[in-house]
Design brief:
This protein is α/β, with parallel strands linked by helices. The protein folds into two domains: 2-91 and 279-316, Rossmann fold, CATH 3.40.50; 94-270, NAD(P)-binding Rossmann-like Domain (Rossmann fold), CATH 3.40.50.720. 35% of the residues lie in helices and 15% in strands. It has twelve helices and twelve strands. The chain has helices at 17-24, 53-57, 76-81, 94-109, 112-122, 145-156, 170-174, 183-189, 209-214, 232-240, 279-297, 309-316; strands at 2-7, 27-31, 43-46, 63-66, 86-87, 137-141, 160-164, 179-180, 192-195, 220-223, 246-249, 268-270. Strands 8-7-6-9-10-11-12 form a seven-stranded parallel β-sheet, sandwiched between helices. The protein has a five-stranded parallel β-sheet with strand order 2-1-3-4-5. α1 (17-24) runs parallel beside α11 (279-297). The two termini are 24 Å apart. The protein binds nicotinamide-adenine-dinucleotide.
Length: 321
């Protein structure tokens, strides 16, 4: 009997089906909130918990199913060297994260959170004015599954959409009624800048003091991707000095967020990494992660392997497509 360790609280949260899939296919399930050791296990389903080189080198893990799409918490290099496939749940949470980004655009444009708090907590019937979204420019950095979903919604809201993604062909970007531009143009011309790139060496702190200074003083920054993309000290300074108008953040360099200068900023909205936390996204992520493990142990190459170098190794050892 294969042993699968599940290190994500939302696995099986809304339905028993993903757990039944594993049990009915002969897996013994173990659950934990963190990883002490991977020695005893054959498979791992993991959310945002770190999976290090040391853990992998001292394990009997044969496959890792990431419960989500960002693999910055997993030592991919070591997994690849050891021939361990790492699958992701491509597209399962794209609509949920995109909807959160759009919700932030609405909330920022009308200062909704502060206005609500003033009335609800302080009984202040204030005199507020915001801006319309229609006609404004949204800059999307990273035009993958989530970036595209954000773009589709923004176009429907009457926004002009600028996109920067050097890895997506310009013709493909144009098909979405959006404009492909360079990094500086997105920063300089957008009223809202929304980040949708993975956290890798190339993108780490891609938004710092210099990039913030290029943005309009009336512009807002939105980050539903990964905290490490933004220099949080530089962002807090830009927010306090009103170099930009505001920001909305779902993700932080260190989570859970405890001490941060961002807590001193009135013009920021912060949520505790809830982008993928909807019934629909969680269910889809559960099912995709469970199925990729079942397929693998039946001798099939699962879909959505991110370390593609491993696929050839699997083929050579008899795995079927
Ligand atoms: P994806 O792989 O489909 O798209 C990422 C896009 O970023 C790709 O098109 C790629 O070409 C582009 N890109 C890479 N490097 C770039 C760079 N330097 N400049 C511009 N573009 C670049 O991924 P996705 O499903 O759209 O998810 C994006 C990120 O969102 C994930 O990596 C993850 O970190 C984050 N995420 C967050 C939550 C949440 O709960 N808040 C949930 C899901 C995903």
């Amino acid at each position: 009997m294969y042993k699968v360790l599940i290190v994500t609280r939302t696995f099986g949260k809304y339905s028993n089906k993903p757990i039944e899939i594993l049990k009915n296919n002969g897996f013994e399930i173990f659950r934990s909130d963190n990883i002490d050791s991977l020695k005893e296990f054959d498979a791992l389903i993991v959310g945002t918990c770190k999976v290090t080189r040391d853990m992998l080198e001292n394990s009997s893990i044969k496959i890792i199913a990431k419960h989500g799409v960002g693999v910055d918490n997993i030592d991919l290099k070591t997994a690849t060297r050891l021939g361990i496939p790492v699958t992701i749940t491509t597209g399962a949470n794209s609509s949920s994260v995109a909807e959160l980004a759009i919700a932030y655009i609405f909330a920022l444009s009308r200062n909704l959170i502060n206005v609500h708090k003033e009335l609800f907590e302080n009984r202040i019937w204030g005199n507020y004015s915001g801006i319309e979204i229609s006609g404004k420019t949204l800059g999307i950095i990273g035009f993958g599954s989530i970036g595209k979903e954000v773009a589709k919604r923004a176009v429907c809201l009457g926004m002009k959409v600028l996109v920067y993604d050097p890895y997506v062909h310009k013709d493909q970007i144009k098909n979405f009624d959006v404009e492909s531009v360079d990094f500086e143009t997105v920063l300089k011309e957008s009223d809202f800048v929304s980040l949708h790139v993975p956290l890798v060496d190339e993108t780490r702190k891609m938004i710092g003091e210099k990039e913030l200074s290029l943005m309009k003083s009336s512009a807002f920054l939105i980050n539903t991707s990964r905290g490490g993309l933004v220099d949080e000290i530089a962002l807090a300074n830009a927010l306090k000095s009103k170099k930009i108008a505001g920001a909305a953040l779902d993700v932080f360099e260190s989570e859970p967020l405890k001490d941060s200068p961002l807590f001193d900023c009135k013009n920021v909205i912060m949520t505790p990494h809830i982008g993928a936390h909807t019934f629909e996204a969680i269910y889809k992520m559960n099912m995709m992660a469970a199925n990729s493990i079942v397929e693998f142990f039946k001798g099939q190459i699962p879909e959505n392997i991110v370390n593609r170098e491993v696929i050839e190794i699997l083929r050579k050892s008899g795995f079927k497509e």
